[in-house]
Amino acid sequence: MRQIHNDALSIKERVGKGAKDHLVKKLNADFSAGGCGTIYRASSGDTDVILKTMMKTPSRSMEPVARKEYDFGMKLKHPNLVRMRGSFDTATDHCLVMDLVEGCNLYDYLQKNSYGHMAESRVKKMFRGIAKGNFYPSTNLYRPNSPGLEHSHRQGIAHLDIKPENIMVGKDDHLTLIDFGLAAETLGLCHQFSGSADYASPEVWRNIPFEPACSDVWSLGIVLHILLTGCLPFNPTEVPDMRVQPDLYWPEDIDVSDDAKELVRWMLELKPMARPTMKEVLNHRWLKRTLSMIMKRRWSISGKTDLLN
């Protein structure tokens, strides 16, 4: 891993602790309740950062875990993904340094708002996470014309623990995906049966090798349903025994468009290969329609302006 000096880092406060060595046994499937390590808010000069520490073990079992998260983090450069800055080792810990993402996680955000649903137009903006190649001098990055997860998959990396707790809500509803501690390469089948029970795909529950990108799409589909309705689409304890396509729960008092429902159903297809890729999610008419209407409106306004001139 990249060796950087930790002398310039000053720890301010502990902000979280992953579920190191903690497994939840449920319906004959093991799920890690979160990533490994202890999380601190620290400062490096005038800049606040996140410091994640993973305790060294006699078996050195945490070293490849830290190295993998570091390597993936350095590969992913996108405004909707937490950015890795460096790493170092102390006598007792493997340490990762990454950008501090301001705001609160989506779970806390929903809890503060009594788990109420959001306006569909707002959900669409948050979910799309899209911008037109704008340059950000502070990060020296161009914003790709795709959401963070699609970019991650194109780079060959699946998150494998998508849930509201791992999505930060920032200024202007900007979403950032954090905690790649359970991430895996998308090339080939995955044998890592970890994640969070309410969001894990059926194939993960069944403890069989699976396509990691397809599993991410399932988890994101559940998050989308929660944003649209404020509730889960079905009882998660039923997922391990699902053998037919589940009927999704849509509250009668919440108006959700047919296009949005269709996209959620597609993302929650029981068969992994029947689910859309993230590129196909982006191209779904629910996300494309508003953009198309905006472009037509801009063309119309521009045309009228030219006529007036």
Automatic annotation (TrEMBL):
Coiled coil: none annotated. Keywords: ATP-binding, Kinase, Nucleotide-binding, Transferase. It comes from the Eukaryota. PANTHER family: MAP/MICROTUBULE AFFINITY-REGULATING KINASE, SERINE_THREONINE-PROTEIN KINASE SIK3. This is Protein kinase domain containing protein. One of its GO terms (biological process) is microtubule cytoskeleton organization. One of its GO terms (cellular component) is cytoplasm. Gene3D superfamilies: Transferase(Phosphotransferase) domain 1.
